[in-house]
Amino acid sequence: MKIITLNTWGGRVYQPLLDFLETYKNVDILCFQEIYHKSNKVLVEDKGDKLNLFSDLVSILKEHEGYFNPSIPSYGLALFISKNLHILEQGSKMIYDNPEYVSGANHPRNLQYIRFIDNGKEFTIINVHGLWTGKGKTDTEDRLKQSVAIKNYIDSLKGIKILCGDFNLLPDTKSVSILEKGMRNLIKEYNITSTRTEFYGKPERYADYIFISPELKVKDFRVLPDKVSDHSPLFLEI
After folding, report:
1. What does 64-122 look like in DSSP terms, one character per residue?
2. CA–CA separation, 155 and 173 (whole Å)
3. Among 14, 47, 60, 182, fewest CB within 10 Å belongs to which?
4. What is the spatial distance between Cα 215 and Cα 3, in angstroms, rounded to a whole number?
């Protein structure tokens, strides 16, 4: 089974992103963050975001079932799963609420999940785009609560669990350590030094992670070189 997670940056690097998807469209599961779906406005400022990006993904990934779970109207998470896998359940859960939210990137956050059977085993894939504060990627009270909410959901699950996405966190934070309990952090395990591309100008080179159940055998894990966003795609084969 092959899995990719990618923050698409709203589709700003558009044609390279579409070319990338054509190359990797046989991957079993693709988890995306920063996805617009039938939107009439960009989230923060217009830098070429594609306001119907989900439909563009659907048009390429024809052998997959596509699911869009918004964190705010018309914007959020997307997950595509091969039609060959037996799906048990799909949905989302709130992990950070902001009742005072009006506009901008500090919006409520949800996790997206899908449960399925493969070779007689139950899997849950969890797709996350973690809280952004505009003030770095260190611990905050809200980020700690967010990690606890994610961990509580993971602990409620049976079977094999894979948690992935853009968490907007540095590796040495307590927020990450909460997620590591009972899970393997592949970014640390494989000594990954950056999950960002040249489009990202700040010195902090971490944001994206994959955490897996300890018993899972990894055939391949790497940061892909494709420059299709300010985030690098992460690739996992199990």
Report:
1. EEEEEEEEETTEEEEEEEETTSEEEEEEEEEEE--TT--SSS---EEEEEEEEEETTEE
2. 20
3. 47
4. 17
Distance CA 87, CA 31 (A): 15
| Number of other CB atoms surrounding residue 27 within 10 Å | 20
The distance of Cα 17 from the centroid of its chain, to the nearest Å, equals 16
DSSP classification of residue 165? E
Residue 75: beta bridge partners?
36, 72
* Those residues with Cβ within 8 angstroms of residue 82's Cβ, 6 or more apart along the chain or in another chain: 28, 29, 63, 64
Determine which of 91-105, 136-150, 212-226 has the lowest per-residue pLDDT on average: 91-105
CA distance 168 to 53: 22
pTM for the predicted model, two decimal places: 0.97
> DSSP H helical segments within the chain, as ranges?
14-23, 53-60, 141-155, 174-180, 186-189
The arithmetic mean of pLDDT across residues 60-69, rounded, is 98
Closest CA to 129 of 236, 235, 234, 7: 7
State yes or no: pLDDT of 177 exceeds 90.
yes
- At 105 the pLDDT is 86
* Phi-psi domain of 72 (left: phi exceeds 0; alpha: psi -120 through 50; beta: other): beta
Helix, strand, coil abundance in the chain, percent, nearest 5? 20, 35, 45
